[in-house]
Protein: ABC transporter permease
Organism: Marinomonas colpomeniae
Amino acid sequence: MIKEASANARKTHYTEILNKYGMLLILILLFSALSLKIDGFASFRNIFSILEQVSMFGIIAIGVTFAIVTGGIDLSSGAVVALASVVGASIVTGTEGYGMTIFAFGAAMFVGSICGLINGSITAYGRIPPFIATLGMMTMARGVAQLVSNGRPIDASSDAFTSIGDGSIFGVPGLVVIYVLVAITCHIMMSRMSFGRHVFAIGGNVNTAKICGVNVEITLLKVYILAGALAGLAGAMLTSRAYAGNPTFGNMWELDAIAAAVIGGTSLAGGVGSVPMCIVGALIIGVMNKGLNMLGVDPYWQQIIKGMIIIGAVLLDAQKRKKA
């Protein structure tokens, strides 16, 4: 009896570890397999290339993770990237100096915050499901981006501005440094601050959260403002990297962001998620994209594979909740 109980305890312990760190193991195995298959895949140059690609939609994924943990969703992040991109480019075009660069990044984040404020207001006070609210914002933000830019790319080749996308700090690309700083800040917000506890409480049970004194409306407002600001930051980063703002930027990025969150273990039912595992999910997507590109896999097949991975991650989450 004692032996059986001990064996069951060990099994439960191993299962918990696998549930918690399984995706990290998958990331390591995926990277190792592609490194064996593709020459130069494990080189520092290629690793930094992956991290640069991940940094932009990865920042969006962090904001989306907060929204999903509350039991919501944000489908507007890709379109907000496009809007922030053309706004930032409009500010720096024909200018020089880091003052305008900082202003452009701030303006991009402000525009994203306004979009998030509208999403949060409609969701929290209008009682409209976040799927519908953010779907509407996705359409509007993309339309405004087209109007601002007249449907054309806007030059953003200011040396100061593009140095953010091209530059590095101690050999680490500037975009990766921004991603790391944002990830650390948001991890602290989610895991160490009352704001994070309120986010989890709302996702766990919104009625219980209200009884416990959580201001649900204000918390949701903050969550969507944060998600919008991060999408705006990603738009400025992409513009800096591409030397131009473009109303077509960020197309389908919201799905990559949601995929990164879900693959990283964030439950679509709400109440479960973390920033570090969201990063792992983003890295899995980034490593997979880079590997498939280097292997010459057709882009259409890449979309099919990514869709299958998302469905698999959601099914896995459903099974976990059934056992809980």
